[in-house]
Amino acid sequence: MSRITNSHLLQDSNDAAPIFSETVYRGNVTENYPVGNPVGVIVLATDPESEHSVTYFAEASDPHSAFFSVGRTNGVISLAQDVDYDPPANHREFTFRVNHTTC
Questions:
Q1: Which residues make Cβ contacts (< 8 Å) with residue 61, sequence separation at least 6?
Q2: How far apart are CA 31 and CA 84, in angstroms?
Q3: Statement: residue 87 has pLDDT above 60
Q4: What are phi and psi of 37, to 5 degrees?
Q5: The domain 2-102 is classified under which CATH number: 3.20.20.120, 2.40.50.100, 2.60.40.60, 2.30.42.10?
Q6: DSSP assignment, residue 64?
Q7: In this predicted model, what pLDDT tens digit does every residue of 17-72 receive, in sequence order?
Q8: Given this model, what pLDDT does residue 15 score?
Q9: What is the CA radius of gyration of the chain?
Q10: What's the angle, vertex CA 62, arms to CA 57 and CA 63, rounded to 5?
């Protein structure tokens, strides 16, 4: 089993920072977990200065972000590619950032 740690980086053009429901989101994925399935983690943010919806995206510069996809409108994190816990890959923990924009 692998642990997913998801932190978020906030980028916002108005005065008040968006508010995420959690500071860090965590989930677990088994090695044979099906690609495309949600991993049980949903990021959620609200922008107190905007009535528009929030859209989410993984920070592409994070090396582990390629393993996961983030639902643009619902924040659902899904497995995007197989994880391999055997050497040489030895994937055990994945950390990546999720950004958001308001539309």
A1: none
A2: 6
A3: yes
A4: -85, 145
A5: 2.60.40.60
A6: G
A7: 677 888 888 888 888 889 999 998 999 888 777 777 788 888 878 888 888 999 99
A8: 57
A9: 14
A10: 120
- As given in the structure block, the two tokens for residue 70 are 């983030």
Residues contacting 31, CB < 8 A, separation 6+ = 1, 2, 83, 84, 85
> What is the predicted pLDDT for the residue at 26?
85
CB 9 within 8 A of CB 62: no
63: DSSP letter? G
For the chain, helix (H) and strand (E) counts, in that order, are 0, 9
* Rounded to 5°, angle at Cα 67 from 63 and 45: 85
More confident residue, 85 or 10: 85
Q: Residue 3: which pLDDT band, with cuts at 50, 70 and 90? A: low
